[in-house]
Amino acid sequence: MNRAVLLPLCLAAGLTACEEPPPPEAAKTVRAIRSMEVVHRSSGERRSFPGVVQAVDVSQLAFEVAGNTREIKVSQGDRIARGMVLATLDPAPYELNVDSAEADLGRAQAELNEKTTDLDRQRKLHAKGWVAKAALDQSRAAYDSADNRVRYARSQLNLAKRDLEKTVLVAPFDGIVAQRLIEPFQEVTRGEPAFEAYIEEAMEVAVNVPETVVGGIPPGLPAQAVFPGGNIGVLSGRVTEVSATANAANTFEVVVTLDRPPPQVRPGMSATVELILQRDSGEDAFLIPLSALLPGEREGRGYVFVYQPDSARVRKQAVAGGGVRDNLVMVREGIAAGDIIATAGVSFLRDGQEVRLSQPQ
Fold first, then answer.
1. pLDDT at 13
2. CATH number, domain 28-39+283-361
3. What angle do CA 268, 274, 279 make, to 5 degrees?
């Protein structure tokens, strides 16, 4: 090979060998943001009502048999899963009932075998004309009676086995134990409540409103629940129940069901429900937390970051509005019902940034 060609090839190979591999790409960090769904509000008089959180459905869990409690595996506030053992009763009496029922079935089966043999013999004798039909009928009646006793004994055994199974109380759904109502070694009766439990994701806030405004609160009206402190913040919801009769204080109970409440929301917590009473006329507006607003260059103008589910990114959106009360601002332009907006740390976000949604901590 020509030395003039060989030298450049060697130099190129040497330079390539000396090159260092590119550094590994740094792991991409995706910021987690707190968020809320924008809820449509018909503009009108805005009113606030103090309320109390309650579970949408509270179930009383009880043993289907009576007995003495032996083990209690959960307590108030514990999470439970469907099929999980919550408590047990002393199984000894029910095990004895199973043994007794099995013995009764054995005796009934032995008698049936005897009557079956006798009926078969009577049929053969009657066929040859050696016994009267009355004797065959009597043997058949004895067989039927024995067969019925076997059926009854078998059903009693099944019931005894079922009662034995019912000495173990299992959770019928995933949820939270709201209250434990029994203690170890306590005698309980059939159907006596042992626990109260509720489904964690289904929460509502009950408030009492005066008769002068209840007419402007129809079912389906959007609402927001404001929780004290900064751990939960503002949650959206809708009015699901409006009482038809007044209570003792001449007020009407209104129930607001929350949208996607986080695990921190528990029954008994206090919350303030914000409602904009319906009017026949007026412009549409939305209430959002003040923490979701990035100030703009002019008064009454600002920006929010709207989450885009298809790309998992936020879009910086100009908004217009006015009026602040209790850390909530009314927005009339720039956002729509159903938009998901960032509610914290907006000064650290930028247009088009990739993010992920998180529940309040």
1. 44
2. 2.40.420.20
3. 140
